[in-house]
Amino acid sequence: MSRIGIDVGGTNTDAVLLEGGKVLAALKRPTTVDVADGVRHALVDLVAAAAGHPALGRIEAVMIGTTHFTNAVVERRHLDRVAALRIGLPANAGLPPFIGWPKDLAAAMRGSVHMVGGGHEYDGRNLVPLDRAAVRREAQRIADSGITSVAITSVFSPLTDACEREAAEIVREVMPAARITLSHEIGRIGLLERENAALLNAGLQGLAQRTTAAFVRALRDSGIAAPLYLTQNDGTIVQAAVAERHPVYCFASGPTNSMRGAAFLSGLADALVVDVGGTTTDVGCLKGGFPRQANAMVEIGGVRTLFRMPDLISIGLGGGTEIADEGRRIGPGSVGFRLPEKALCFGGDTLTATDIAVTAGRIALGEPGLVGRLPGPLVADSLLHMERMVSEVVDRMKTDAAPVPLIAVGGGSFLVPDRMEGVSQVVRIEHHAVANAVGAAIAQVSGEVDRIFSGVERGAALDDARREATRRAIAAGAEPGSVQTLDVEDIPIAYLPGNARRVRVRVVGEIAQLTAEDTRD
Amino acid sequence: MPRLLNAEELDLLAIGAWILGTGGGGSPYASHLVARQFYEDGGRIALLDPDELADDDVVAVVSTMGAPLVFQERMTDADFALKPVRIMEAFLGRPFRAVMTVEIGGCNAFQPLLVAAASGLPVVDADAMGRAYPEAQMQTFSIAGLGMAPHVVSDIRANDVIIPTASGWHEMERVRRRVCTEYGSVATTCQAPRTGVEVKRHAVLRSLSQAIALGREVRRARMAHEDPVAATVAAGGGKRLFTGKVMDVQRRTTEGFLRGSLSLAGLGEDAGASFDIAFQNEFTIGRRDGAVIVTTPDLICVLDSISGEAIGTESLRYGQRVTVIALPSQPIHRSAEGLRHVGPRAFGHDVDFHSVFGEEPA
To answer: Could you report the predicted ipTM of this complex, rounded to two decimals?
Structure first.
């Protein structure tokens, strides 16, 4: 069976046709204002490029990764107003939903704020019983206001989700057409950050529904009868109908897919990946073929959130990075996509990282004669400085001192030196420019659990978490027999009794066989 | 006259208090948000110099206690901070003149500000630790031999406890920890009231101003693209001890504490050397190439070498570029009695205290 992977980036939409581990066709098309148009063009051209190949007759799935939802938050566009229902009074009354948000984003998204009694303790006891009458009363107020997106957040819901579920039932009774986001399905422990992620999710569901519907039409228009999946932050996929309920899970799919593709194309499951573009260098860490997860707060569009995101470090270094002060200052300014007109080697007037690499013989680009006679020490110093920047950021991503392989991808990867301290080898791969689309095409389905256990043996806690993660993976579209544990992490917790530990488990499985019809329920 | 804090000083206090947390104390983020919201809604908070207290004024000493992880779901807001203060006033039968924090390091730096937001009471520019420490008997009032009762521990529900007497500071600490656990491992407290003269004699004076000044220097250095670590050292009268990279972090919870150790490999002028730090919620002892060179009560702070941001024990990880600095301790902590409460032996390290600043115990 073959698969199509598509990555919709800010500048380019990349597509690949993949079968049996081989890239049969690959292309880049400009991303369009209506992102589905770019997808349609890419699909039509991909089918044309692979014309006559039998793989076109056995496409089992199309996987799309998109930064569209992240951009909507950053640009404050296409966002719905959200009613925030917080369960947990009398706690946290002085920290209402939307606190600490940038004013413009709050203005675009704050519909109304509702706080009611309820919530749990870390050990599963009630904080206070859920105030059902208050939930019903507030749901009626939301219905009367005309808002249809609701985010429900309850204290310690990642550990005990009963209040959020019960409140959702009541809200659905009052407003059957509401789009409801439950925070425990989105984020981790950290009430405000989880609630923020849930609020963003609720405000993006409308856009996500319209976008996936347009993607499905683009598939039909290009004559492809395979089901559609969207890729997520952790390098896995879910059916489009599930993905549109959780658009925040697509936020970091671009860099994630690029890392997954690098793993696949290089055959390395445990490695660091450095992706050097025109303006920035991203470094991530692959563990078992998946990006390591960030276990910390991530800011999106100025809002603090905490949910599953890849652990990435970005620095301002790329092929277009400007070199000033005779090589003493590297960036952070960059000529970016204007490299072909601005760089010295293309006849421009700006000394860039690319010009240094051209002079040093690292890469043949443009007209080396145009770079002129750069002083030897300038070239050597700048190169050394840039290589130090890369090797330092690479080292920061490592979790221990042992040397690991490093996969270099991206248009500016010629800036990555072939030897680095703490790096066993620098791996360069074919098709690295479409690694992100390859990463989308190979994705599997996952499930995750993050929970505190107290008064339970460690083994029992891990088993329990694994079972729940598996249940979630199957619900997201995994073939039950294929589910495997990807990573397990448990951390003891300060000041809590009963040997409290926080357990995080992630599992993955192959996609269950579906037809295109199954994906639109 | 008390002076009004301005909104910027709230931000600076959050930066400075986190540095003085010496790895623990809990993040001030949520409490800072509450205070900032109060200011955005037009509220103001007054800061009172300790010298402005009359000798017989009564001051409320407040804190949030519990597990930092629980603080992430159940945060302290103004009303919850005020609750034990009102219960204490009813118990004493008289109102408080002002409010102060037990601990300037970490989230408790904002506790009296939250009380002030809900009550209008002024905040005394002082605390009882000059940093963060894990237990109640480590405060200056305990070292000075003052009493520990009465003590109010408040739940967010109606389960408040007044402890009118206790046989000692350690016993008080054990009882209130049990109570706090029953509440779900978060409680607000109003501790034994202090008179104006007790505050002036035994508290760490002007520590809020010091934390704000520290925060101001860090922010100024960041904005001027100067070295914020050097700025912190200069502003705090401290010393740079080691610059390196995190090689290993070990953590375990025992007896309700987060204990562990951190190993660094030197960079730059410290290349080739190693540095190890042990922590019990806060950093307690540092060894360079195996030899002890710094211990509590000197403040041991681990800062991000680039941003100058303080790093808590719970967020240390391999590969971070960090600089270890020491800030001077309070004279009372360096006294014989002080060292008994907060010296290296109080944290299980069988070594004598020698300050990196060269002062011998008084």
So the answer is: 0.91
